Amino acid sequence: MEGRELKLYEQRTQEVQHLRSENHFLRQDRDHYRKEWFFVLQRVNAVQERNKKLVEENRRLRQQNRELLSAAASAPDKAEAKPSPDWIKPPVARRRRKKPGRKEGHPAALRPMPDHIDSDLDVALPKDSAGRESCPHCNACLCDLESHERVVEDIVPAKVVVTCYHTRSGWCPSCRKRVESRAPEQPPAANIPHGQLGINALATGVLLRIHHRLPFRQVTGVFANLPGLSVSPGAITRQVQRLADWFDEDYQKLILQMRCARYVHADETGWRTNGKNGYLWAVTTPSHTLYHVDRSRSGKVIRKLLGKAFGGTLVSDFYSAYSKMDCKKQKCLVHLLRELADSAEKSPAFAATTFFSQSRRLIKQMLLLKEQWEKLGDEDYIRKVCRLEAQLEALATADQTEANARRLARRMRQYQKELTAFLWEKDLDGTNNAAERAIRPAVVARKISGGSRSKNGAEAWATLASLLRTAGQQGKNLLETIKSMLIAAWAADKPPSMPAGP
Fold it and tell me: pTM, whole model, 2 decimals?
């Protein structure tokens, strides 16, 4: 009996312990879910608050949308556009474009026929079993036979031509150096573990880089795709600089020709070199163009290019650096017209002044009168020039109340003689369009490549661009010009010296 009670007591004790542990676990589980419920309740409250704000904002936006639609419906069709910022170019007004091509009745503008034929090729019609010329589609016998000449112009596919020059060298006891023979079109000898670039490759690379404004990697791509010549961008960069060194004497001659010119046009634009801001100067005549890259934009640059004793006439805009030149000058009238138009666009008060209308009309009369010199004769022409000069002086010295009018009148007084110098010389232009046209290719090259990576690269670009544009102005073939200049430069250094001793 006692054993049964003891066993029952142990079972009850185990059940109590189990219930106690289960109760403890459930209490912990309850506390955990209480915390989770509290956090969930907070998130629900935040979502409900955000939803309330979004509903209110949505209601407000719907109301604004209804008001805007109502205002747009009641507004006129052509509302005044909001003015664009100053740094955004205004859209070009849509103009009626004329029909492309020549007018009806005029002869067509065709490419000229080639002056020679390199090869003749007979192209026969197919023949039937009897030897008669027949139709290639139905084999019918052809009649009314005729002969034709179809001239086709094509280019020869490029290929790499490797030439091995077998030269001789010897030690000169008088010059104390080793001299080596060299062919006229052979580059100066170089002890390198690969082949040198020949004269055609060098000239083509310079033409693609400078004249056609291709980046160096694009130049190497052209060489790789067309003739199959493998060359790195760094090699093209180095060769361009070497060519500029060889052509330095021609560049210095070009500077002397500019200093001897009767009339020169000058302009400048930005040019970055190795990430630093600089300037590209352009000086041009009808037959020559000179480019120069410099860190400075001061008047000493143009004095260095043209020399202190320059005796010609300098045509430029109103930038003060050109005033440092002690020579005859002509200021660009188109720049003055542009300044008048810009000031009138920004200031309606200036546009309403008589100074604006009279100045614009006077400048246009001056440009038109110059075109009529031959038609009027010297006597009538000089009389009209004197009358326009008197009008310019009266306009420049009159009292002006508007700020822009005072500023531009002061400019006219300062450059009065330089605004009318072109009226007294037949070959002198009253605008600086020549310099702007010369500098436009450089601006395109700057936009493509971003300037130059080094000072040597900038100087090389200026040298080669000057010589190539000059050759183009003179109607020369650019590729042949580069090759002939290379042969002349290499011949001047002939015979090349070798560093090795006897």
Answer: 0.75
